Structure formats: C-alpha cells, structure tokens
Amino acid sequence: MKPSPKRSTRGVQGNKRLRHLLAAPGLPKGWIAGTLLLYGVAGLILATFPAPYWIWTLALAGILAQALALAGARALAQFRWLPANLLTLLAMVGSGAFVAALAIALNYAGSDDLDQVSATAAVWQVMQLSLVALVVAALCAVISTEVGDRLLQVFSRLQTSLILAALSVLGLGLGGLIGLAVSPTTV
C-alpha cells in the first residue's frame, strides 16, 4: 500500500521542524548533555546496589517534582511571592526525595559478613555514602534549574518542564540500564 502524499509531507515537515529546533541558537546543548550525564550517574547508583525497587518510584517522584517546579531564578521571576515560594518548596521536596532515594540505595553497599565490620567503620561508610548521595542530588538539582532557565529562552514554561522531565527520566533510565548491565548481583 502506497502512503498518501499528505502523510509523507507531514513527516518531512516534522523532521524539518525538529532539525530547526535542534539548531536553535539559544539551545543549551552542553547543559543538556550534562543533565543526561548526571542523571545517568544517579541511575547507575540506583541500579548497581541491591536496593528495593520502590526506591525508583521515590527517585522518579523527586525528579518530576523538580521538573514541574522549574525553580530557577528566571523561571520564578514571572510569579508573585506566594506561587514562587510554593514552587520553590515543591523543588525542595523533590530534591529531598531524590536525596533519600540515592542515600538508601547507596547504603545497601557493604559486607554480608557482620563479623568483619566494626561500628566506627560502618558509621564512617554511611556518612561517606550519604555525602555522595547529597552531592549527586545537589548537582542534579543545580544543573536542572540552570537548564530550565536556559530552555525558557527558547521554549514556553510547559515545554521546558516537559523537556526537563524527559531528559531527567531518560538519563536516569539509561544510567539504570548501564547499572544493571555491569552489576554483579542478580535479583
């Protein structure tokens, strides 16, 4: 069956529009790559350690809350005091959920033989791993707000939120796939 000419021109127009959007002068391609990379690291952390699966739900909820809030300075400047502070609160709650998910996943690292572990070593390891979770989540939050502010120069607020959510979830998913591929543990 031969496709109708109308359908084939729509596809060509869509491809031209996508190429035009990707070639837009204000599109922060390096920041977008950084977003994918940082959320990929977070997905790698979540998938590598034998944490429970509900951790992924907590991480996704945190990421989506951050993407919806778009808590960058340029994004919040268009709101009055109360809505801006509520969006900031939503972003902080999302960041907290993301930190909690990473910290719980990282704290599944360790030894199965409890006779080999001392209390001070365990406390030190928990502190180190929690600090790693905090740093990764903080970097993800900072880059998300910066990318959101830069994308607002090119796209509308709704489009920017959707793009940011898609980038974050894609990075988390790709990192998770890599983590599952390299993880020595089997479920």
TrEMBL record:
Keywords: Membrane, Transmembrane, Transmembrane helix. It comes from the Bacteria. The chain crosses the membrane at residues 21-47, 53-77, 89-110, 122-142, 162-182. The keyword Transmembrane applies. This is Uncharacterized protein.
